[in-house]
Amino acid sequence: MSTDTKLQRQNERLDLLLNLTSKITSSLDLREVLRAIAANIREAIQADAVTVALPHAASGKFRAFAVDFPHGKGVIKEELLVAPSAAVKKAMDTLKPVVFDMRDSELAPEASGVAAAEGIKAACNIPLVNRGRALGILSILRITETPFTPEDVDFLSRASGQIAIAIENALAYREISELKDKLAQEKLYLEEEFRSEMGFDQIIGNSTALKHVLQQVETVAPSDSTVLLFGETGTGKELIARAIHDRSRRKQRTLVKLNCAAIPTGLLESELFGHEKGAFTGAISQKIGRLELADQGTLFLDEVGDIPLEIQPKLLRALQEREFERLGSTHTRKVNVRLIAATNRDLEKMIADREFRSDLYYRLNVFPIRIPPLRDRKDDIPLLVSHFVQKFAKEMQKPIEAIPTAVMKGLRTWDWPGNIRELENFIERAVLLTRGKSLEAPLAELRKTNTEGFMRTDLHEVKQVAGERTNSRSDKSSVADEYERKQRDQIIRALAACKGRVGGADGAAARLGMNRTTLLSRMKKFGIYPKQYA
């Protein structure tokens, strides 16, 4: 090579180094920067391909993060995962360049197949080193046997330092951006939680049944064991979950809640695991999932029995391996979460009906706590009534000073199919109706709306309507038919009043004091369609 040619080559490479500096400072998008760098180096070195590969922690392999191979066959492409060759390991360990011929190198079968498919003959691996640490590998590939000169290697080594700085800066920027997004979403989540906080901020009652639950809370709270709360709708499962979190080692971190029954099936996976921009139609921006948001804290999955079968394996993996991927991402994320799950459904029956995975159930059922319904802790009703009367009287600025004995007796004898939530709503209505200093409760409005209450109190009424005695098989059949007719009429009236809405706080399920899925099952049985009443 003539002196003029050498000088020209040196000038071109100096220009490239200046170019690299310019590109590093012009953008903090890692892939965009590395793509531009790879293209410039390929031209300067007169190579056929340049790749920048970074370690992939989850698999132990290297991932091709940026690839410039204009005439390649498409085998070597971005996101390709390949086990590191002996040459790559040597470059990472020694922090020095390694030049090798493919014929003489020891490649893993996977890497050997990739190289053969693309016709790679020679390669030069340059460790990308910053502050004594190798961040990745810059690979220059040739499909000819043209050797890499000492000048090539020296130039690439100098360039690699700047590339490493670019990677370090971009990774730091990404980490800061993600942390900022997480903090912003956590703040938003906490603000939403504050606005939707339950009606009381402490557990009220001193019944034996409640004391047993609180003893279990004290036992399990200091550990990181998974807790599964069983209880009917409205018994205060979220309140118990908060009590566990507040007594745990994670109390300084976030308690993140997700009601699995309140999220449409198609969005639940995204809500739980998050998604990347463009992961699906409508995903216009990146979203951090509740699982990631709860990292180092506690995740409360309410109505866990409503999680679709297709999502259950992914949740099981996240709980067992403490890792997951956002929708639309191949990047595996580690997460450290303490899980509290709750359900009002019979999970063992769901397992028998193949509606719930047994392995997930066993993973959730580490420490089960059964929360008693209000009818099993009636000694707590006077305390709860007094608390709610004081709360709503203060909010409505009403000077209510007394609760009549007859009213309290009526409240204690009611079975409260909707439990504490139903009691709270009823007391709010009573305070609204009260005109003096003594609580005026509309006890006549209390009606049994769930099946058990109806069977216990209204069976005699059904017998009368049927006009038959129940001591024969045909008589029992008539009573059952009349019971089902009355059930169907109740559902229709509730749907009409709620304009066809089934779920939610103002839906027919809440109005009837039953679970949304139970109501849907009965509607299907009776051939009732909500759209008819919208």
Largest sheet: 6 strands, antiparallel
- The poorly predicted ranges are 194-200, 448-477
Strand content: 5-15%
Q: What topology, given as strand order, has the largest sheet?
A: 3-2-1-6-5-4
Structural class: alpha/beta
Helix count from the secondary structure assignment: 20
Task: Calculate the terminal CA-CA distance, rounded to whole Å.
Answer: 85 Å
What integer is the average pLDDT? Answer: 81
What's this, in brief?
This protein is 49% helix and 14% strand. The chain is of the alpha/beta class.
Report on the structure:
- This protein has helices spanning 3-26, 30-45, 86-94, 109-118, 150-195, 208-220, 237-246, 265-273, 290-293, 312-321, 347-352, 358-364, 381-396, 405-413, 419-433, 451-457, 459-466, 473-497, 508-512, 516-526, and strands at 49-56, 61-68, 81-82, 98-101, 122-130, 133-142, 227-230, 255-259, 274-275, 287-288, 298-302, 323-325, 332-334, 338-343, 367-370.
- 49% of the residues lie in helices and 14% in strands.
- Strands 3-2-1-6-5-4 form a 6-stranded antiparallel β-sheet.
- Helix 1 packs antiparallel against helix 2 (30-45).
- Residues 194-200 and 448-477 have low confidence and may be disordered.
- Strand 1 (49-56) and strand 2 (61-68) form a beta hairpin.
- It contains 20 helices and 15 strands.
- It is elongated.
- The protein is α/β, with parallel strands linked by helices.
